[in-house]
Amino acid sequence: MEGGQKTKSRMCCICNLRRPALKRPKTLEQICRECFYVVFEEEIHKVIVDNNLFKPGERIAIGASGGKDSTVLAYVMSELNQRYNYGLDLFLLSVDEGITGYRDDSLETVKRNEVQYGLPLKVVSYKDLYGWTMDEIVKMIGLKNNCTFCGVFRRQALDRGAALLKVDKLATGHNADDIAETVLLNILRGDIARLSRCTSIITGEDGPIPRCKPFKYTYEKEIVMYAYFKKLDYFSTECIYSPNAYRGFAREFIKDLERIRPRAILDIIKSGEDFRIAASTKMPEQGTCQRCGYISSQKWCKACVLLEGLNRGLPKLGIGRTRGVNQERQKDDQKVGVKNIQSKPCGSLDF
């Protein structure tokens, strides 16, 4: 009898038919591969349905970098779309930042995914949009603030690419770990006003193209396991310019907490969701950039400010507080005329 109980305890805790292949990082359940596939996909389906992320007939762009998150998102979205008849038209959207030895290789992975999943691919590049590659920007600015440029340009590039595809929404592969990191970073920076927005599963509803995060409650480790067991084709090398990024320190702290208590990731997200912003906290009002027409809370969007600094040979112009930037821009306006500056497009693609 004891032997029988011992044998039974070694079976998958869900089906009790097969031997477990892994212990789920989120729940610590020991389950087999087949059951893992089912619970992983069903949890994402539940998130999509419970939050009304999509509507039948919508065109959805999937932000595809070639990494594990976006590759698994593309695969699972394609599977669920067929299984549950979402009625969605899916597209892959990639941004070529111009990082030799990193993005050029990862884009080859995305191109293979295009064939493997039968999803049309659109690629937009920093060079076409802004006239600069990240390699050129790093050569000018150095490694200290390069992630600021890349993050700002990538967000706008995704929106511009989505506009070219004429999609209704943009789905990104941001997972639970990413969102917990962002909550922590906003607290560390004192940016409490962004807390409610960073935990939202749909953002940008007041803009041209909303973004959604089907992986909001999905652990990074489980995404890696799913990709490994499914033998999905993805690119796993880290960006060569990001090892010293501030976010990396928050990421390590989150990983330490997860090792001690796996539930910590979801609890941090819950804390961010439950924050109540004081009435005295001023939220930025969304408007339109007077230079490129992109959504912005300032006269010029952050991308245009950074781009102006690069083009003038003053790459640190848009780094840090915006007051100095505004003063510099006002002086520049007085010298050459506001109309002349604003007539210069931010990029070569219309938005």
Trace the largest sheet across and list its strands. Answer: 5-4-3-6-8-7
N-to-C order of helices and strands: HEEHEHEHEHHHEHHEEHHHEEHHH
Report the helical percentage.
40-55%
Number of strands: 10
| Count of DSSP H/I helices | 15
Q: Please, what is the average pLDDT?
A: 85
Summarize the structure.
The protein is of the alpha/beta class and about 350 residues long. The chain has helices at about 1-10, 35-50, 70-85, 105-115, 125-130, 135-140, 145-165, 175-190, 195-200, 220-230, 245-260, 265-275, 300-310, 320-335, 340, and strands spanning about 20-25, 30, 60-65, 90-95, 120-125, 170, 200-205, 210, 285-290, 295.
Q: Which features does this protein show?
A:
351 residues, alpha/beta, six-stranded mixed β-sheet, globular, disordered N terminus
Layout: helices, strands, pairs:
Elements: H1 2-9, E1 22-23, E2 30-31, H2 33-50, E3 59-63, H3 68-83, E4 89-96, H4 103-117, E5 121-125, H5 126-130, H6 134-141, H7 146-165, E6 169-171, H8 176-188, H9 195-198, E7 202-203, E8 211-212, H10 220-230, H11 246-260, H12 264-274, E9 287-288, E10 295-296, H13 302-311, H14 322-336, H15 338-342
Protein model, in words:
The protein is an alpha/beta fold. It has helices at about 1-10, 35-50, 70-85, 105-115, 125-130, 135-140, 145-165, 175-190, 195-200, 220-230, 245-260, 265-275, 300-310, 320-335, 340; strands at about 20-25, 30, 60-65, 90-95, 120-125, 170, 200-205, 210, 285-290, 295. About 50% of the residues lie in helices and about 10% in strands. Strands 5-4-3-6-8-7 form a 6-stranded mixed β-sheet. It has a two-stranded antiparallel sheet with strand order 1-2. It has a two-stranded antiparallel ribbon with strand order 9-10. The longest helix is centred in the middle third of the chain and has 20 residues, at about 145-165. The protein is globular and about 65 Å long.
